Amino acid sequence: MAKRRRSNGDGAVYQTKDGRWRATVDLGWAKGTRQRKYLSGPTKAAVSRSVREALAQVESGVPLTRDGIGPTVEEWLWYWHDNVQVRRVREATLSAQEVIIRRHLVPNLGRVRLRELTPEQAEATLVRLEGPGFNSTSVLKVHRCLSRALVVAMQRGLLTRNVCTLIDAPTPRTQEVEPLTKEEARRLLEAAGHRRNSARWVLALATGLRQSEALALAWPHIDLDAGTMATRQAMTRARYVHGCGRPATCGKRPVGCPQRTGHGPELADVKSRAGKRVVTLPAPLVAALRAHRTAQLEERLAAGSVWWTEPTAPKGKSWDLVFRQPDGRPVGHKRDYADWKALLADAGVRDARLHDARHTAASLLLLLKVPARVVMDILGHSNYQLTMNTYSHVAPELNSEAARLMAGALWEDEADDQGAPRRRSGD
Question: What CA–CA distance (Å, rounded) separates 52 from 65?
């Protein structure tokens, strides 16, 4: 009887004495030795399917799993994060996705086989996350992270569908901006005058710099004589990853892993092209920066050899930072946030997010009738619509002012004090 030829993709499939089926997948050469993967199953069809999946997995660049039947969701997410995303997205995005994978996706979906993931499983994960402590915008970020990872898996032949496209994405609820009032801002400035790095808070309330931009602000980018400030760099957060493998075996967070790898704060580009901007500073802020520079030079002389040695900065960037710790080191994001909360308490001002200082600056500028296009440039927004949509809460006051100005333009001095036109005799 003629021996049947193997079908394409079957590999070396054969039956053992105990009736089970086995196959050998040739993985090529590595370190001078031939690499092979042995698969087994109850039927020839099952083993042949495993061989095809294993070959597709190898061709996609994903390390072959132990059983050769495709990665779990956890294995694929970490591969996607560490090998695909690391070359495509900014450091801040990469860190945010690492948290989403570690805290939300792996605990809920990690053990599921990637090819067996169902829309219902993904949907149940999103439903579990919805609640008072996790807003709809955060849930949407989890959905997007999983969906992007599945898109790449489809492109590499590991999946035939993206289950995230089969479920409704969460609808983010726009959070109303709650800026500080002019009186609250003034109380903060008064309280900041008695604290170290007081110019940090004057800068935040007067120009609306993002936290990462303020912490990376360097003296070479400020012209005190001209009264201008150029935003050219941003400070990244410290980013550490487990060195004990994926998944982690130490049972700790990345920063506590004994074999951790990564780095502390680093200088990076600003958020967008619009973020590179030059801002003219108010005269009181220029005076505050002059006083701050004098105080910083005195600290440096007092510290002597203890003062932090500035590393070599990438081209176009500088470590000659405006805001530092007492030993010259950069101020971290957490330390900066804690200082903001302490300042609120000192000033007796209601609790507010640090980002609300940026909202306060923008709202005050608009209420002072600064053109929205100018406000957009000061904040470093990428488009006009973003500025107006974010600060729509000032629209009623601006509309009232517009009505008053129109009354003055069309009826000139015939408008009364309330903006209503006087009726002429004979009308």
Answer: 14
Q: DSSP assignment of 231-251, as one string?
A: E--EEPPPEEE-SS-SS-SS-
Residue 22's contacts (CB-CB under 8 Å, 6 or more residues apart) are 13, 14, 15, 16, 38, 39, 40, 47
For residue 113, give every residue at least 6 positions away whose Cβ sits within 8 Å of its Cβ, in sequence order, or none.
69, 70, 71, 72, 73
SS3 label, residue 223: strand
Q: Do the Cβ atoms of 208 and 379 come closer than 8 Å? A: yes
Class of domain 182-233+272-363+378-384: mainly alpha
CATH number of 73-166: 1.10.150.130
Q: What pLDDT, in 10s, does the model give residues 75-125?
A: 999 999 989 998 888 888 888 899 999 999 999 999 999 989 999 999 999
Cα dihedral 191, 193, 194, 199 sign: positive
Same fold, 73-166 and 182-233+272-363+378-384: no
Which residue ranges make up each domain of the chain? 12-59, 73-166, 182-233+272-363+378-384, 236-268
- Determine which helix (DSSP H) or strand (DSSP E) holds 40, and give its type and residue range: strand 33-41
Looking at per-residue pLDDT, the higher value among 240 and 102 belongs to: 102
